[in-house]
Design goal:
12 helices, binds pantoate
Length: 279
């Protein structure tokens, strides 16, 4: 695997490649990331991964400095997956001057759910993803469904800017007890780790209620949050939304049976976890 840090070196490595499959990451790689690499390999060749902890998507009270950086271990994992190039720019490489041009997702998608609790997060994500796409020029790029709203925002960006990059969605990779793999899981104490699968169980319970005809979303969401709260979580949201645009379903939508997704975010101790489940 070639490890490159500058945009110039990256372009040299990829000159003439027309079927590049790209997986952007912030490092601290786990099985979930590696499953994205495997999916990328099925959709293109060569596979390019990036590791870049993107300051633009962290809020002032978030964990940019504490974000786990495990570069050597990440390199070994990517090598085993047969990744061809790892692009690991420094901040100076990717942002040699202040990044004043930003991509602004529409408010009705970018400022809801995660965007409501993490102002500016999606602007930071779309800005870096557009820049990484511009560096790598991939034919396809793989994003996990674990970050459901991020996947939708990136896919819409790619479509609206007519980028030549197809966005491929990867299923969420879960531990045997249902907990979605995430770099943040490493912050959980052993008691918290034992409690953490409750988030997915909550989503499953909500999905079960919806499937069995309980369609008062306000009540479902409120009760699910109260349950989490009782168990010591601090929920930001539990929300049942339309898959197509993440807006709340109307009575008409529910009557028509539009596809839904349940999404949630909650803090357990100091660790904020998110998850979702298509209903
Ligand atoms: O999902 C992530 O790890 C990040 O948001 C991404 C897509 C690599 C952009 O920094």
């Amino acid at each position: 695997m070639k490890i490159v840090t500058t945009i110039e070196e990256l372009r040299d490595q990829l000159r003439g490649q027309l079927r590049t499959a790209f997986v952007p990451t912030m490092g601290n790689l786990h099985e979930g990331h590696l499953s994205l690499m495997r999916l990328a390999r099925r959709h293109g060749d060569p596979v390019v991964a990036s590791i870049f902890v993107n300051r633009l998507q962290f809020g002032p009270n978030e964990d940019f400095d504490k974000y786990p950086r495990t570069f050597q271990a990440d390199v070994e994992k990517l090598e085993k997956e047969g990744v061809y190039v790892l692009f690991a720019p420094t901040e100076k490489d990717l942002y040699p001057e202040p990044q004043e041009y930003r991509v602004q997702p529409p408010n009705d998608l970018g400022n809801i759910l995660e965007g409501e609790f993490r102002p500016g997060f999606f602007t930071g994500v779309t800005t870096v993803v557009l820049k990484l796409f511009s560096c790598v020029q991939p034919k396809v790029a793989v994003f996990g469904k674990k970050d459901y709203q991020q996947l939708m925002i990136v896919r819409n960006m790619s479509r609206q800017f007519a980028l030549p990059t197809e966005i491929i969605a990867a299923e969420t990779y879960r531990a045997d007890d249902g907990l979605a793999l995430s770099s943040r899981n490493r912050y959980l104490s052993s008691d918290e780790r034992a409690e953490a699968p409750q988030l997915f169980q909550t989503l499953n319970a909500v999905a079960q209620e919806v499937r069995s005809g309980h369609l008062n979303m306000f009540e479902l969401e409120r009760d699910a949050m109260a349950q989490l709260d009782k168990r010591g979580w601090k929920p930001d949201y539990v929300a049942v939304r339309k898959r197509i645009d993440l807006q709340p379903p109307s009575a008409g939508d529910l009557a028509e049976g539009v596809p839904l997704v349940a999404l949630c975010a909650a803090k357990l101790g100091v660790t904020r976890l998110i998850d979702n489940l298509e209903i």
